[in-house]
Amino acid sequence: MHGKGAYCYSNGDRYDGEWKDDKRHGKGVVVYAAADGSVSEKYDGEWMDGRMQGWGKYFYADGGVYEGEWNDGRMHGRGTYVFPNGNRYEGEWVEDRKHGYGILVYVNGERYEGYWQFDRAHGKGTLMYLQGDRYVGEWSNGKKHGRGVLTYSNGDIYDGEWRDDNASGYGVLEYANGCRYEGEWEEDHRHGQGVLHLPDGSSYEGGFFHGKKEGNGRIILKDGSIYIGTWKDGNIVGQGEFRLSESCDLSNPDY
After folding, report:
1. CB count, 10 Å around CB of 207?
2. CATH code, 65
3. Is 32 within a domain?
4. Where does the source fall among the domains of life (predicted)?
5. Which residues face 212 on adjacent strands?
6. Is 163 within the bounds of a domain?
């Protein structure tokens, strides 16, 4: 077959379009038949040597629809895929997988814009969460990993290191209430050595364990006075040392 023509296959499939040397070549439409004879899937686009090549639109049996570039029968290049659940991806593809730069808009309103590797967010990207949180930073294998900034809907801002989707490593959290923590994190908790600054001008320097003060530390008051002691589960335990600043007036009843 050569030129334009239609061909019906014994299994019910039908191709209508251009041919070259008995192969689909050029522009054409193929309709794949289901077992009951109804239309299962459909491709409308360009062909080369019997395979989808160039630009085309494919309607899948599960309801998904892809429109974009093809190479050797696979989604490859730039294209848009609307998933059966309503999610929509627009961007680069490599061998049927999201790969390169692209935007995925979820049906619930969330949105990821950035780089992909083998169908997973990988590299630099931005994720807008449904509740209003916003993460801008590095990703690895679909998870926040590396350096990034997460701005929470309540006004808190974390800027630091991430590992496997959790704040881990060194980071700074600016609380909406005026507090500020600088130090080590593990699995989204203040964990290790850090400094917690309070709105009243005082601060705590020392150890943390799963978000609470733990181990040796000291409190520095706004006037420069210092308490040195030990904490357990967020509370002071045992005896400590309190050093008044030179500016303290001991005749003042506030001291």
Report:
1. 20
2. 2.20.110.10
3. yes
4. Eukaryota
5. 209
6. no
CA–CA separation, 194 vs 208, rounded Å?
Answer: 7
What residue spans of the chain are helical by DSSP H? none
Please indicate, yes or no, if residue 7 is contained in any of the structural domains: yes
Task: Provide the b/e sequence for 171-190 (b: ≥16 CB within 10 Å).
Answer: bbbbbeeeeebbbbbbeebb
Number of domains making up the chain: 1
Question: Cβ distance 34 to 45 under 8 Å?
Answer: no
Domain hosting residue 88, numbered range: 1-94
User: Which amino acid, 252?
Assistant: N
Q: Phi and psi of 249, rounded to 5°? A: -105, 105
Global confidence as pTM: 0.89
In a domain, 161, yes or no: no
* Beta strands 65-71; 51-59: pairing state: antiparallel
In tens digits, what is the pLDDT along the chain, a chain of 255 residues?
Answer: 789 999 999 999 999 999 999 999 999 999 999 988 888 999 999 999 999 999 999 999 999 999 999 999 999 999 999 999 999 999 999 999 999 999 999 999 999 999 999 999 999 999 999 999 999 999 999 999 999 999 999 999 999 999 999 999 999 999 999 999 999 999 999 999 999 999 999 999 999 999 999 999 999 999 999 999 999 999 999 999 999 987 655 444 443
DSSP state, residue 86: S
